User: Fold these one by one.
Assistant:
Number 1:
Amino acid sequence: MIKDNLSNLLQSIPDSATLVAVSKTKPVASLLEAYEAGQRDFGENKVQEMADKATVLPQNIRWHMIGHLQRNKVKYIAPFVSLIHSVDSVRLLNEIDKQGQKNNRVINCLLQVRIAQEETKFGLTFDSCDEILNQNNYTHVRIRGLMGMASFTNNQAQIDSEFKSLAQYYKQHQEHHEWDTLSMGMSGDYPLALSCGSTMIRVGSRIFGARN
Ligand SMILES: *Cc1c(COP(=O)(O)O)cnc(C)c1O
């Protein structure tokens, strides 16, 4: 049951860590079940699906965009999104700033860093993060930290070193940029992510069951 999965999970993580329940592909009824158990942070990876769910679900849900975001779709989530984890280009950041301005709100963002060995993962290099942070003059974007995904592997040492590289960069910049969010860890690797300093985990299948 979703409720039991949630409470088991919450018992196993520190109070200081935020749990984002990743509800992509899951029906509204499942999200409502988690909501009724007290869950307020939900993660989706598709703009249309998030917007549709936000329309029918309670207003006090905090919506997290965790999937690759196209610039031409930012406008659909700009009015309500709570945190965009997947900022992977300057052009995307410019568009989020523009849409924040239009909606008269400051949009919270994380820079997604490519820490995995795999070719397929989206994300910035640490060098491009440096560039973005050095010329950060956005008025309607607030960068609150970083997001990263480890390689899909059973090699714990590799996952550990990937998480640690992100945590190290985070710690180096946290104070200066007043960051408060390091988003790393999913169903398979969240304990390791937390031990490496994660403040926010994104968990789907462990709460809602396997996706088709
Ligand atoms: C799907 C997804 C998750 C959750 O994955 P699970 O293995 O089901 O916990 C976390 N982060 C991102 C970016 C995802 O796309």
Number 2:
Amino acid sequence: MKKHNFYAGPSILPEFTKEKTAEAVINFAGTGLSVMEVSHRSKEFVAVMDEAMALVKELLHVPEGYSVLFLQGGASLQFLMVPYNLMGKKAAYLNTGAWSSKAIKEAKLFGEVVEVASSKDANFNYIPKGFDVPDDVDYLHITSNNTIFGTELLKEPEVNVPLVADMSSDIFSHPIDVAKYNLIYAGAQKNLGPSGATLVIVKDDALGKVERQIPTMLNYQTHINAGSMFNTPATLPVFASLQTLRWLKENGGVEAMEKVNIEKANILYSELDRNKLFVPTVANPEDRSRMNVTFVMAPDYAELEKDFLDFATSKGMVGIKGHRSVGGFRASIYNAMPVESVKALVEAMQDFEKNK
Ligand SMILES: *Cc1c(COP(=O)(O)O)cnc(C)c1O
């Protein structure tokens, strides 16, 4: 039976990425060697890194004056690298979920954190709006998509300070205005490639302004100067990420992705709004994530949760169990998720409803 992969991360990747990576695991760029066993300094691998960086710039229309990096340590290491490098005495954070909260915890090690707003009061089921940001902060940190709670900031907040964003779970899913950001980071494993690589886009002149000593490996400038080759990069994940970037370009880039992502999200949310058995956990349509669709059983049908999970599983759905902090279900419908899989999930919801 066909499996429909709704895992939140690591998660679905394009067939193209998997096939090209599988080939290169055996014979990389005609070398007769695996991509896992060639030097990162070989001309073949340097070409991979260069093309990956160039495609990130092309696809996101990154302006002059920014550097693209492929680091390790996941988005979680960025929670501390960001304040280490960019926070003088004070930074602002918007608290929209578990990942934001973790970023805030690390930032507090480096200075004063102004939490400009939080949706914790309602288990993070909305995006706070209309908050003030002090003028004297070095940046406002946002989590553009809240993977666990199913909310997304589809437009940058209008503020007078530079933004920093954790875009781990929605990067490349729609166009963004990079010029508004001092830094963007994303673990690869949601919309780009396997875990092990972390994409960072950083404005060069935002660096070098803090007084503290920064350890070499945690200093963005180290990695900019070395073209992400200061130490051994995650060669296989970077290779696979490059294949996804090529696939994105071939398929019309982030502009085309956005159209399909809107279509997929509409199909699923429409069904959730219609079907009496289910309720989406995010009520405000403006705040609903196009990447992670979270829902629970309607109160009258709460006892059917396990039945639906078993039913959906029997129809080939994988990874739809919700995160433990929200419960219910979560369907992650990243770029690589075909419309057919979303339709298959909707069909399973309708079939289940008919039998109740
Ligand atoms: C998955 C995720 C993280 C954690 O990423 P790691 O690479 O595991 O450190 C952080 N932020 C967001 C928004 C995520 O979705």
